[in-house]
Amino acid sequence: MNEFLYVISFSILVTMALALARALAGPSVFDRILAVNMFGTKAVLLVAVVAFISGRADVLDIALLYSLLNFVGVVAALRLVERGKFYASVRPRVEVKPGEKP
Amino acid sequence: MLALTVDIFLLVFLIASAVGILFTHQLFAMAMLFGLYSLLVASLFILLDAPDVAFTEAAVGTGIATVLMLATLAATKESKEKPRKKLSKSALTISIFTGALLLYGTTGLPKFGDPEAPIHTQMADRFIQQGQAETGVPNLVTAVLASYRGFDTLGEVTVVFTAGVGVLLLLRRRYKPKIRRNADAG
Prior knowledge:
The structure holds two protein chains of two kinds. By secondary structure, chain A is mainly α.
């Protein structure tokens, strides 16, 4: 059973590495948001697996907190990307006159 | 064995994200990577068996700080770090001086892992033997933080609360911003 959990935690770590690489490299904003979200999910899984291996069930509360924070953080990030004027990407701003539709 | 492997992996991720934060010029990426960094630090705290410190780190670092940084970015016009022309001499002098002062300060501390340090000879035994009975908290780190150093923690909470209120006041908008419908930011 424990070997099984070891293999699982190792594969979660490898997945975390892939997500981190995407977060570091990611050309667009959404790549980074998704990578950070995925990293958070994998952190939740890792914490849960470590809790099972070490037998400390109270650590599972932290895993729950992580998943909540992950959700709230991603929603906030996406909402602010939608609201923010300039920082989403480097593209010229198109001026729109009051009467005209963009 | 497993804890060591996970520790090494997480520390490597930590270094990679820190280097990434240093070398990126996109402020948005920086904010997201800071959230990731703080999540890693919180995971390391869990492995060190300090769950409530991990709670604080995750809530403040990953949650509030990332959202506040993104909100600040949404309110500003610049999306990129300004390229630095040359090294500022006065800033370099000040940081080297401060670093040297801090290094000098560490010489007064007991050696790392020294069993004869005052913290181990005077307080630790008492905390381990009577902490449970005196505070009723199952986790020892939590007992020390929340009960024995309660005033310290209260001060920290006050500082964080004041900072949060200040930032929220700064970020308050007079007009509700328009939401772009066709935001193909990428």
